[in-house]
């Protein structure tokens, strides 16, 4: 082994990499928000009395969960312009992440809604609350608590998935590191450092999510 | 899309299947070792494997593939993209399967281990004949779920430069300028591989749920 590690290009590119972390956060947070919106919307549609609508949601979830994100992002990247929507790679990546995360969110949120027993809903209705109020006050909060662990680990997964957005050269950590790598040819050094960055990011997210959970969801069950 | 292009995609599909199978089999063997180390009861070994698992769960698969790909070259092991990606996916699978199987080994009732010990069975026999057969049953739905993740994960090999299904799609799409058709077909091929597994996994999960009731 006559290769000497040289981290100089990494150190010189450090400001760029740190800015790129912000890009990764932007993708992750916007993607998450879109995923939650799709998740909640999907669950409501999934429970509609109109059968084709329910099938549509089931079909969407299965389609997304059984195909790779890379193929999805390519498809969306090429499909949007054909639909007359011209977007930069970064917003395109957010849409793709939101759609992908949304499919998983639908399944997770549905599990949470089902964990609330029917009697709760009926009691709410009997007290004269509207269907919407029952959903918001009686079903949503306890359900949120039930799904919190799986939803947050899905979010960490989504954050790690943002690295695939580099395939359409969205602005985030992986694409910036690829640029540094192709300028310096210090492939191992660059990717090793960036992997450590991702590890720190997901570790911090895990801590923050745990903190939130102990703050807001630590009331007794009954 | 012409017949020739479809055949090119199918050739890519063949590599996707090969990559998935190799990574799953090698990953299972390594994953079993990881799971046994994680539940060995030796503190240092358990800590180390927990760290190993955390690293793979806390970083993107794409980065893992990059690091393995360039890392292997660095330590003087010359490999083509196919072998390097297999090693990367194997390590990835070993960590995830290790964690899944750790969970199921711990889910086997403690009395089983105690009874085996009382019968003076050694570690190997206790694991092989008593704990693992039950643990494997418990872990099946999650294991199949991970297999689906792994098949989808092989698509990232295209970014490292290996021509499997997704990269074959890229090549064809650049040739005939019909990205939607090509990626639609590519997506459908992945779907045909993954969906039966997903359905089977869900079926097993329901079966176990009703059995445990």
From the 3D coordinates, which CATH architecture of chain A would you assign?
A: Orthogonal Bundle
Number of strands of chain A: 0
Helix-strand string of chain A: HHHHHHHHH
User: Which sheet architecture does the biggest sheet of chain B show?
Assistant: none
The dominant shape of chain B is: globular
Transmembrane segments (chain A): 17-45, 57-80, 92-113, 146-170, 190-212
Keywords (chain A): Amino-acid transport, Cell membrane, Membrane, Transmembrane, Transmembrane helix, Transport
GO cellular component, one term (chain A): ATP-binding cassette (ABC) transporter complex
GO molecular function (chain A): transmembrane transporter activity
Short summary:
The complex is a heterodimer of chains A (222) and B (213). Chain A has 222 residues and is mostly helical. Chain A has helices at residues 8-12, 14-46, 51-65, 69-82, 89-115, 118-126, 131-161, 173-184, 187-216.
Keywords:
heterodimer; A: 222 residues; mainly alpha; MetI-like fold; B: 213 residues; 9 helices; 85% helix; 0% strand
Account of the protein in words:
Chain B: It comes from Endobacterium cereale. Chain B: It is a multi-pass membrane protein. Chain B: One of its GO terms (biological process) is amino acid transport. The complex is a heterodimer of chains A (222) and B (213). Chain A is mostly helical and 222 residues long. Chain A contains nine helices and no strands. In chain A, helix 6 packs across helix 7. The longest helix of chain A is centred in the N-terminal third of the chain and has 33 residues, at 14-46. The model of chain A has no long low-confidence stretch (mean pLDDT 90). Chain B is mainly alpha-helical and 213 residues long. Chain B has one domain (3-211): Orthogonal Bundle (MetI-like fold), CATH 1.10.3720.10. Helices cover 85% and strands 0% of the residues of chain B. Chain B has helices at residues 3-38, 43-57, 61-74, 81-107, 110-118, 123-153, 157-160, 165-176, 179-211. The N and C termini of chain B lie far apart (52 Å). The A-B interface holds A 1, 3, 62-63, 65-72, 74-75, 78-79, 82, 156, 160-164, 166-167, 174, 187-188, 191-192, 194-195, 198-199, 202-203, 206 and B 55, 57-64, 66-67, 70-71, 73-76, 148, 152-153, 155-156, 158-159, 166, 169-170, 173, 179-180, 183-184, 186-187, 190-191, 194-195, 198.
């Amino acid at each position: 082994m006559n290769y000497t590690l040289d981290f100089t290009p990494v150190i010189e590119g450090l400001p760029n990499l740190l800015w790129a972390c912000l890009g990764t956060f932007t993708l992750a947070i916007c993607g998450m928000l879109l995923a939650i919106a799709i998740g909640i919307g999907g669950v409501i549609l999934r429970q509609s009395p109109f059968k084709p609508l329910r099938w549509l949601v089931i079909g969407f979830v299965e389609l997304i969960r059984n195909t790779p994100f890379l193929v999805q992002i390519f498809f969306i990247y090429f499909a949007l312009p054909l639909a007359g929507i011209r977007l930069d790679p970064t917003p395109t990546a957010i849409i793709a992440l939101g759609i992908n995360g949304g499919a998983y969110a639908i399944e997770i949120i549905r599990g949470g809604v089902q964990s609330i027993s029917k009697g709760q809903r009926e009691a709410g209705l009997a007290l004269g609350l509207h269907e919407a109020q029952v959903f918001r006050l009686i079903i949503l909060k306890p359900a949120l608590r039930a799904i919190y662990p799986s939803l947050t680990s899905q979010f960490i997964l989504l954050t790690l998935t943002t690295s695939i957005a580099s395939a359409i050269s969205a602005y985030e950590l992986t694409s910036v590191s690829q640029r540094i790598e192709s300028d310096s040819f210090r492939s191992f050094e660059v990717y090793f450092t960036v992997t450590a960055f991702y590890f720190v990011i997901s570790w911090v997210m895990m801590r923050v999510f745990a903190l939130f959970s102990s703050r807001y969801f630590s009331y007794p069950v009954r | 899309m012409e017949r020739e292009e479809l055949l090119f995609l199918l050739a890519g599909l063949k590599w996707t299947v090969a990559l998935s199978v190799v990574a799953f089999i090698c990953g299972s063997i390594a994953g079993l070792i990881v799971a046994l180390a994680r539940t060995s009861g030796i503190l240092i070994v358990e800590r180390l494997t927990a760290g190993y698992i955390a690293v793979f769960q806390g970083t993107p698969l794409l980065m893992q593939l990059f690091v393995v790909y360039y890392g292997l070259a660095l330590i003087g092991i010359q490999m083509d993209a196919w072998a390097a990606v297999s090693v990367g996916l194997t390590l990835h699978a070993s960590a995830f399967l290790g964690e899944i199987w750790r969970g199921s080994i711990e889910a086997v009732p403690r009395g089983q281990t105690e009874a085996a010990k009382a019968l003076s069975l050694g570690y190997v026999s206790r694991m092989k004949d008593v704990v693992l057969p039950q643990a494997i049953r418990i872990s099946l739905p999650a294991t199949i779920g991970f297999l689906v993740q792994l098949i989808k994960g092989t698509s990232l090999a295209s970014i490292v430069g290996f021509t499997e299904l997704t990269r074959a799609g890229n090549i064809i799409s650049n040739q005939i300028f019909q990205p939607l058709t090509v990626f639609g077909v590519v997506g459908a091929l992945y779907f045909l591989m993954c969906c039966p597994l997903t359905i089977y996994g869900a079926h097993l999960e329901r079966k176990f749920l009703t059995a445990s009731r």
